Structure formats: structure tokens, C-alpha cells
């Protein structure tokens, strides 16, 4: 049963190719500068934010004006490069965040709609199997494995109820 808020999205092959090409171009442009941090790395690193920006800018300006106060291990030119690159990538990230949020929300909604519809079909197959409709027991045996596997994969948790539970 369709509801008024069901999404009806159909991407053409041309649209999907265009999206893929744009993502490929973005990935190729960013690949030389992106790194991957482990979760412990992320946790241990001090985090800069927009609130940190004035401090970083002032420290850089003062370090360039009065380099005698910088310890030998402080790379002032490196600080400038890091700051500029951080600001540039922040702008890119801000452009991507709403796209990723929209993509995530749309994906969640589409997946939910597909799952709810599949569950409705599963319930119908269960009912048909109880009524002795030909072919329904075979279909039920195929579909019920999803629920049997999900309870096996999560030891120590309560079993997931089937839609008719």
C-alpha cells in the first residue's frame, strides 16, 4: 500500500553517469591531499574549530613578525600552509555536508520504504502459507531466513520479532 510520503526516485543511466563522473573528478582532485586517521588518532589530536581560528591567525601573525620567540622546531611557513589549506578544505567540507546529509536522509527513507513494503509482502506470504496456497511455503522459507539469521548473529540479545509476532 503506497502512502503519500513515499519517495518516487528514478535516476536515469545518464544522470547516474553524470553523478559518478562528478564524484570521480572530486575524488581525483582531493586524493593527493587527503589522509586517513584511525579512531585513536582522531581522539588524541587537539581539535581546531572556527572558535580557534582567531587564535591561530594571531599566533601566525606574531610568529611572522617576531620569529625570535618561535622555538626551533616551530615551522612558521608550515603553519601558514596548514592554516590556508585547513580553511580551503573547511569550505569544501561545508559544501559537502548538506549534500551528504541529504543523501543520507534520502537513503534512509528509501531503505525504510523498501523494507516496510518487503515486510508487508512477507506478512502476506506468511498468511498465504497458513492458508495452504501453493508456492507460499517455499517463498516463506526463502524470506524467513532473514529473521533467523539476524537472531543468530546477535548472541545475548532478544530475538527480533517477526512482523506477525
UniProtKB/TrEMBL annotation:
<protein>
    <submittedName>
        <fullName>Uncharacterized protein</fullName>
    </submittedName>
</protein>
Amino acid at each position: 500500500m503506497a502512502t503519500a510520503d513515499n519517495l518516487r526516485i528514478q535516476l536515469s543511466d545518464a544522470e547516474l553517469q553524470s553523478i559518478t563522473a562528478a564524484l570521480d573528478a572530486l575524488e581525483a582532485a582531493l586524493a593527493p591531499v587527503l589522509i586517513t586517521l584511525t579512531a585513536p588518532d582522531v581522539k588524541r589530536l587537539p581539535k581546531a574549530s572556527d572558535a580557534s581560528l582567531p587564535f591561530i591567525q594571531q599566533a601566525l601573525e606574531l610568529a611572522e613578525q617576531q620569529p625570535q620567540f618561535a622555538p626551533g622546531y616551530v615551522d612558521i611557513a608550515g603553519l601558514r600552509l596548514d592554516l590556508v589549506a585547513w580553511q580551503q578544505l573547511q569550505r569544501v567540507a561545508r559544501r559537502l555536508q548538506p549534500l551528504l546529509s541529504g543523501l543520507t536522509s534520502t537513503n534512509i527513507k528509501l531503505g525504510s520504504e523498501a523494507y516496510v513494503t518487503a515486510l508487508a509482502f512477507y506478512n502476506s506470504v506468511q498468511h498465504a502459507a497458513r492458508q495452504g496456497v501453493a508456492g507460499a511455503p517455499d517463498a516463506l522459507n526463502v524470506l524467513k531466513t532473514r529473521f533467523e539469521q539476524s537472531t543468530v548473529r546477535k548472541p545475548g540479545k532478544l530475538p527480533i520479532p517477526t512482523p506477525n509476532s
